[in-house]
Design goal:
Helix content is about 40%, strand content about 15%. It has 10 helices and 8 strands. It has helices at about 35-45, 60-65, 70-75, 95-100, 130-140, 155-165, 180-200, 215-225, 245-255, 260-270, and strands spanning about 5-10, 45-55, 80-85, 110-115, 145-150, 170-175, 205, 230-235. It has an 8-stranded parallel beta sheet, with helices on both faces. Helix 1 (about 35-45) links the parallel strand 1 and strand 2. It is globular. GO terms for molecular function: hydrolase activity. This is Amidohydrolase family protein. It comes from Amycolatopsis carbonis.
Length: about 280
């Protein structure tokens, strides 16, 4: 296979945390604290391009915000790396999001990352001012807004889909994990993802964490409908994901023909390649 672009991996090491009422643990054992460690991983994998996102997962947004400058520095050190900035829809995080958005014009920054796992929801009026500001910044700097999806609660595709309806006419929106589980996969591949594309929405996705049947079904739907081939990206979600497993899963489905070229390379360049004029 030719060179690979990874549209979603994390940088930064999180502290141990007592998830789900258990003892403090640090499950993301492949976390990287330094840029040199990240570059070593890229060299070992043969990954030619990547989008690096501040690591998050413990319920303290300040930790995720603290990795923004490290990701920007990584993008400055090696042109294989594009950076995403951690931003938040929560009013409590407004000052920290404002500071993060000041970095949006840096040459290596190509995305703004938000997740409702740490609070807020797309339909909450209290989040609207922050969401408006985040998407306005994305439009101003031609950035992608990268949003976590998972079944249920604030990250469910029914809820996150409100962002597509509200903002994706004139801003690019990357739905991470293709809904994140059975219900999201069926809602999206069963029609909603393609309906959005047909309606002119600038919506993209990746299949990290996608379960069993989903990649095969999505590839067949893309072929049958004749759209969507340029809206799906390869993503490892390292260290929360599994690079080798994700690569094998998608390679088996899309191969290295035209669809594989979009998934593994060209769509990444459209979304996360160098800014125009740079």
């Amino acid at each position: 296979m030719r060179w690979i672009a990874d549209a979603h991996r994390h940088l930064g090491v999180l502290p141990a945390y007592p998830f789900y009422g258990g003892p403090p643990v640090a499950p993301a054992i492949g976390s990287r604290a330094t840029i040199d460690e990240l570059l070593s991983d890229l060299d070992r994998e043969g990954t030619e391009r990547t989008l690096v996102i501040p690591n998050y997962g413990v319920p303290d947004p300040e930790i995720a915000f603290s990795f923004n400058e490290l990701c920007v520095e990584a993008s400055e050190k090696d042109d294989r790396i594009a950076a995403a900035l951690w931003v938040s829809p929560r009013s409590e995080d407004a000052a920290r999001t404002d500071q993060a958005l000041k970095l949006a014009g840096e040459p290596g920054v190509r995305a703004l990352k938000l997740s409702f796992l740490l609070g807020g929801r797309a339909s909450d009026p209290a989040c609207k001012p922050q969401l408006d500001k985040i998407f306005a910044t994305a439009r101003e700097h031609d950035l992608v807004v990268h949003v976590h999806t998972s079944p249920g609660a604030a990250s469910d595709v029914d809820e996150v889909g409100k962002l597509v309806d509200e903002y994706a006419d004139d801003a690019k929106l990357h739905l991470v994990h293709f809904g994140g589980g059975m219900s999201g996969h069926i809602k999206l591949a069963g029609g909603r993802f393609f309906d959005w594309i047909a309606a002119g929405k600038q919506v993209y996705t990746d299949l990290s964490w996608a379960i069993g049947f989903t990649p095969r079904w999505l590839a067949e739907e893309i072929s049958r409908r004749g759209i969507g081939h340029d809206r799906v990206l390869f993503a490892s979600d390292q260290p929360w994901g599994d690079y080798e497993g994700e690569l094998a899963k998608l390679t088996a489905v899309v191969g290295d023909g035209e669809l594989g070229d979009h998934v593994f390379r060209s769509t990444f360049e459209v979304l996360y390649g160098p800014k125009k004029g740079k």
